[in-house]
Amino acid sequence: MSKVFELRKHARNRRLPAAIRLGSNAPDVTVHNLYLYYDLNDPSNYTGIKTAQERHDNAVVGVSTGRDVYDLGEYYNQIHTNQIMLKSNIKAHNTRFAMLEPNCDIPFHMDPPDIYNIISPLTDPIEFKTKELQAKLQVGEIWFVNPSYMHSTSHQSKNTRVAILANFNYSEEVYEYLTGLL
Asked: I need a labelling partner for 39 at 20 to 30 A (CA). Which of 11, 21, 28, 32 fits?
């Protein structure tokens, strides 16, 4: 993707806010996801190296973590599975559990402009920050995170924080749905 094309996509994305609350999972969906996580939580299922390579290959010049993303592997990992359930009107794919060690942060970064993100805390609230917004995402809530805003998360707890991450495809219908939530 050319840098001009990438910048145009970021500009289009900036018509939406940094984050939008999409809704919440029902308690039975949260329990399902917790059981699934505990069943899969084995180092042989971790996909952190694969994720780091993908992030490095698709880094947003000047704003993404690029090669530095490999350092995250010391305190951040993921388990990819298509068995995760999310109660949302947006069709998600690339669903995964994201584990962040206690007292750690995911530093400010931007994602590629054509990767749209969903985050849902599973075990602990998430302190989500952008320059425009600071929010505490509660367990079970489902949020859209705009890839075109610098964003970070922090986790101040004694246990590993588990969140559900997913991606979805941009379409005019999705854009209209998101703007309708504002």
From this structure: 21
Q: Please state, in angstroms and as integers, the Cα–Cα distance from residue 62 to each residue in 49, 103, 110, 130, 145, following that order.
A: 22, 26, 9, 17, 20
- Residue-wise pLDDT for 8-36, tens only, equals 888 888 889 999 999 999 999 999 999 99
Radius of gyration of the chain (CA): 16
Residue with tokens 């609350």: 21
Give the predicted TM-score (pTM) of the model.
Answer: 0.84
Torsion of the alpha carbons at 55, 60, 64 and 70, rounded to the nearest 10: 30
Closest Cα partner for 3 from 130, 178, 126, 11? 11
pLDDT digits (tens, 9 = 90+) for 64-109: 555 555 566 567 788 899 999 999 888 899 999 998 888 888 888 8
- CA 121/CA 123 separation, integer angstroms: 6
Cβ atoms of residues 133 and 151 within 8 Å: no
CA dist 123 to 19, 49, 117, Å? Answer: 20, 23, 19
CATH 3.30.160.70 fits 8-180, yes or no: no
Tallying the residues shown for the chain, one arrives at: 182
Residue bearing the bigger pLDDT, 74 or 144: 144
